[in-house]
Structure formats: C-alpha cells, structure tokens
Amino acid sequence: MTKLERALTYAIQAHHGMIRKREKIPYILHPLEVVTILAGLTCDEDVLCAAVLHDTVEDTDTTIEEIEALFGHRVMELVNSETENKRVNLPRSQTWHLRKQESLDFLEKTQDPAVKMLWLADKLANMRSLHRLWRREGSMMWKGFNEENPVQQAWYYRSVADLVSELSDTDAWKEYKYLVDIIFEGV
Fold first, then answer.
1. Overall average pLDDT of the 111-130 stretch
2. Quick check: 93 and 147 in contact, CB under 8 A?
C-alpha cells in the first residue's frame, strides 16, 4: 500500500461508526471531501495524508504520537495544525471562541503553505456542509452548534478567508469566499 492508501485505511477505521453532526452521513465522508479538494491544490502525498487524517486526533482516540509513528513527522505536524485543544473538562460552547482564536493565531503565524492549503480544504468542506444546512433551515441552522451566534461564526470563517488569501487565485478559495459571502450576507 502507498502511504496515502494506509492513511485512508487508518482514517476509515478511526472514524468507524461516527456520524457527521447535523447531516446524518458517515463521518469519513468529510475527510474524503477534504482530500479531494486538496488534491486540486497539491499532489504532495504527506499533505494529502494529513487531509485524510486531519480529524483523527481531535475526534477519535488517535494520538498525535500515533500519527507521527505511522505516517512521519511532516504528516504529524500538518494534522497537529488542524487539531484544537478541546478542553474536554469544559463544555464546548464555553470554549468555542477561545479554541477558534487559538487556531486563527496559529494560522496567522504559519509560514507553511501546506498548512494553509489544508485549512482551506477543510473549511471549504465545512462551508459546503453549512450551505446545505442554510438552504434547508435558513437562520435556524445555528441551533445546536457549539456557537449559535452567526456573528461569531461569520467572524471565524471570514478570518480564515483572510488568513489563507494568498490562495485567492485558486478555485477552492473562490468557492470558499463565495459560500462565506452567501451564508453570512448581512451578518
């Protein structure tokens, strides 16, 4: 198996039985969408592996050390760039803003274009999902999210667009910005 095939197999096993919140679809479809988006931006196998694995540490029992042992230091660094400190002892709604600010601070400081591509691909997949919800539920879509205030959500997603704007000549960034503008129009 190639490294990417091993990463795909690992991610499928790690996310086994998980359902994507609000969409009721197998969770693994999100990392698969992220790697598909990213494949339009790079053919770097480590970056593609990180795309498939980007939620394993944050949302499964996988440790960052396991990612490094199985897929190498570079993949581990990239996965870690997408992994929030969830502060499991506190309700997610209480830590949402802090977690997002820490993530944005990291993104702002990074000089690694692969990190920015990974972030763009992940957030574009999220925006596609949010757009489907928005079309079905309108402004009621925010009920049940860790952050229900659309102003805060707009702050986060617009900030990401700004911080990865060096990719603004790509179709992925253009689609992301378009969806952000639609969903958060007037916010």
1. 97
2. yes
